[in-house]
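Researcher: Here's the sequence for the chain we discussed earlier.
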Amino acid sequence: MNDATLYDVRTLYDCMQDPATVAWMVQMNVPVPDIAPPGRYPSPAEIRDVIDAIPGISPEYVITKSVWEVSIVSRKDVSWATLAIKDYAGLPDEARPFYFTGGWDEVILLVTTHLAKRCGPFVLLHNSGASPQIVM
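Model: Thanks. This is the structure I predict for it:
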């Protein structure tokens, strides 16, 4: 993670392949399943489809050949989040890892939960070292 990352998002399956990550999650009292269901990262096009279908939010996209980012704002209060694609290379249908550069936990969880329904479970890794959170 870099300093501009609030939450790094990884598939639960990827986290379960790393013994150090599993040990850390157990130490942090995160309920880790015995078997991680397969999961995958979404493509930017899938992220857009999912976000555009969530009621009550307004997304604003910034997309160039090397940047794919969306700012998500709640229509009913001041909560927001910004999601970015890692190493975007201008390919909207290529599955890529993503992360949140900032925002409110409620919006981050809302978006990640909707993406997990399509792609499988994710783990939110907070930049502060706080307990990871599994999102299914």
